[in-house]
Amino acid sequence: MAVLGAGSWGTTFAKILTDGGADVVLWARRPELAREISEARRNSDYLPGVNLPVGLRATSRLDLALAGAEMVFVSVPSQSLRENLKQVEPYLAGNAIIVSLMKGVERSTGMRMSTVIEEVLRIDPARIAAISGPNLALEIAKEQPTGAVVSSSSLDTAQAVAKLATNRYFRSYVNTDVIGTEFGGVLKNLIAVAIGIVDGVGYGENTKASIITRGLVEMTDFAVAYGAQPETLAGLAGLGDLIATCQSPLSRNNTAGRLLGQGYSINDVVKQMQQTTEGLASVKPVLELARAKGVDMPIVEQVRQVLDGTLNPRDIAPHLTTDSSEPQGERTLDDGQAHGGASLWRAFQRTLDQLRHGGRSAGSPRP
């Protein structure tokens, strides 16, 4: 196995695979970091205090990292994925499975990471998988138990990856809903920024619980509009990741939001963050994608206004929790909106109704 990217999550996932019995090479861009990982069994920049397994090897040479790799796990900043893939392509084995560990959308195109991989490498989607879930790197590196979802259009691919990405403290489940799995990982970052903002302002648990709950509605409506299954957003890649990212000080998106809520400018926040904060980069492309499908995302829209400096962070919570001045249903089907989970629920109701009436719609005449 090869893992590309020796940040906190890439290094942690290399540890997961190694602890599960795989032969792993971790690619680090900086030679000094590769040496520290291989010789000292540490990554002090990103995982302080964590001992890495003896079997884990690291290199700063892409050709060595990819030599003979049957699976390649990619953990680089989402906005640099396309360029990284162009460098990777000459060294890839012809049948290698490519696994995305990233949670973002490409800012210039709005594409999900798996679709960028498919486009750049020109490979069958059945050879691509994505992993998502409540995966705060430092906790997992310390071997605190958790789960994740491996998703691929090919169930065989998802199962093959999940089998390798499972050990005594990390369990991988599978699904074939790549759209829902990837968008869950993207969208929860935006809600986590909102939670950080209200936390930085000083609002309490009621406010945060309201935003998390309403945020899940926004996430589900958006993902379903793009073809996801609503059940995926209620699972590890949606609700599970949302809870972990919103409540933990280890979350970069939560931390960035908290700094914004305390009055720091977006430029100051970016300077203070030592690693890429995917949520900040994803706000505008996600809103563009939402508008293209007619999906309302008031929470994400308010985050955008805070980032742009057009909304005082202290004014964010009333807007987030009310959406508009008119009473609304808690779910989209309650107030008659046609998008998202509502249309799916109505289809389910029609099917159930037909079953009740012997295959006919209610009210239709008997033959």
UniProtKB/TrEMBL annotation:
Substrate binds at K103, R252, N253. Sn-glycerol 3-phosphate binds at K103, G133, K188, D241, S251, R252, N253. Pfam families: NAD_Gly3P_dh_C (PF07479), NAD_Gly3P_dh_N (PF01210). NAD(+) binds at G5, A6, G7, S8, W9, G10, A137, R252. Keywords: Cytoplasm, Lipid biosynthesis, Lipid metabolism, NAD, NADP, Nucleotide-binding, Oxidoreductase, Phospholipid biosynthesis, Phospholipid metabolism. The active site is at K188 (proton acceptor). It catalyses: sn-glycerol 3-phosphate + NADP(+) = dihydroxyacetone phosphate + NADPH + H(+); sn-glycerol 3-phosphate + NAD(+) = dihydroxyacetone phosphate + NADH + H(+). It is found in: Cytoplasm. Belongs to the NAD-dependent glycerol-3-phosphate dehydrogenase family. Catalyzes the reduction of the glycolytic intermediate dihydroxyacetone phosphate (DHAP) to sn-glycerol 3-phosphate (G3P), the key precursor for phospholipid synthesis. This is Glycerol-3-phosphate dehydrogenase [NAD(P)+]. It comes from Cryobacterium suzukii.
